[in-house]
Amino acid sequence: MNKMVYIFGAGISGITLARKLAEQNWQIKIFEKNNFVGGNCYDYFDKHNVLIHKFGPHIFHTDKNIIQKFIKKFAKFREYEHHVRVNVKNQQIPLPINFKSLEMIFKKKSKIIIGVLKEKFKNKKNINLSDLEKIKNKYIQEVYNFLYRNIYANYTSKMWGISIKKISHDVINRVKINLSYQDNYFPNDKFIGIPKNSYSSMMKNMLSHKNIQLFLNQKGKLIFKNKSIFFQNKLICSPIVFCGAIDELFNYKFGKLPYRSLNINFIHYNKNSYQKNAVINYPAHAKITRITEYKKLTQQRINGTTISKETPGEYSSKSKNFNHRFYPINNIFTSKIYNSYYKLASKFKNLYLLGRLAQYKYFDMDDAIFNALELSQKIINNYE
């Protein structure tokens, strides 16, 4: 049997799947609409030779040994601890909130607050904002109100474009509160790092296999007739893995799925440092959510520095500043639309959906890789 698979989308999901199947002697054709690979992980050297991340800062982190083992075959990593700060009332305090953050905010009261937290949440490493809200203690309620008003409400409503009262608690509770002095942004992950060369170099290494053919700048669409799929006027009976926007795939038959987008403005300065930390969040700012200084991520030794300022907005393909899909908006309404697309896709036995846009769900890089590895085994089982 001539084992062939067609993959549409050369982001980290599609590239991982391509590599894994290629190693199992499958022939891969991978089609990418852009002139670069890596999707949102794409990075490049700007005109000042600073390595920047086009779609905002990406730090690779995982708690899964299988993911770490897989990814280290294609890049050498510089181990990195991510220490984020949040600008609150002219102080830059550690985020996630931890005991040091509480000391900076509440000064003398912090000793009492930390004592109550230790008593109420014994044997817990972290909690979320909802956990705080439930504690009927005047000191803890003061902490809850301060964090809610000055960090969570401002940042979250700005990020999603609606009042925090209309946002799912699941979204709000993603940012944990550490019950220690630990201020590593990813405290539970076994491995945190950034490729020594670049993510783009890592992706190219993953694609470097005799069984993989890459086609860039591909604007052609899949055509669905009855229960068959055609591409470039050719019937495709082999497995097809689609990593793009599912609503666009089916010509918006059930309506458009909404996304939040980002306008990322890059600025270069002729000085060696712009801010103390790689990433600083600005919940109180009218527009900006965070500022990233890339040298502090990549640890480049180079004169000058490049930063990015991120401003969120509603995605629209016609927008000048917000024309890239970043974050799916998950609610009852969008779930209904997505499920309609998913049921339609399920009618085509050789069509598989993979990745953030096709599955309409936000994935960290390690989760994207894990999903691709799982799908590779599913395809092998179905066709061998």
In short:
With 384 residues, the protein is an alpha+beta fold.
Percentage of residues in strands: 15-25%
Task: Extract low-pLDDT stretches.
Answer: none
Number of helices: 13
- Helical fraction: 25-40%
Distance between the termini: 9 Å
Structural class: alpha+beta
Rounded mean pLDDT is 94
Tell me about the largest β-sheet.
7 strands, mixed
In total, how many beta strands? 22
How would you write the strand order of the largest sheet? 8-7-18-19-20-17-21
Q: In angstroms, what is the radius of gyration? A: 23 Å
Task: Assign an overall shape.
Answer: globular
Keywords:
384 residues, alpha+beta, 33% helix, 24% strand, globular
Task: Describe the protein's architecture and organization.
The chain is of the alpha+beta class and 384 residues long. It is built from 13 helices and 22 strands. It has a seven-stranded mixed beta sheet. A five-stranded parallel beta sheet has the order 12-2-1-16-22, with helices on one face. Strand 7 and strand 8 form a beta hairpin. Helix 1 crosses helix 13. The chain is globular.
Helices and strands in order:
Layout lengths: L3 E5 L3 H12 L3 E5 L11 E3 L5 E3 L6 E3 L2 H7 L5 E3 L4 E5 L2 E5 L3 H8 L3 H11 L5 E2 L1 H5 L4 H23 L8 H4 L4 E2 L12 E5 L3 H9 L4 E4 L7 E3 L2 E4 L2 E3 L3 E3 L3 H4 L9 E11 L9 E3 L8 E4 L1 H4 L6 E10 L12 E2 L3 H15 L4 E3 L2 H4 L5 H19 L1
Parallel strand pairs: 1-2, 1-16, 2-12, 7-18, 16-22
Antiparallel strand pairs: 3-4, 5-11, 6-11, 7-8, 9-10, 13-14, 14-15, 17-20, 17-21, 18-19, 19-20
Helix pairs in contact: 1-13, 3-4
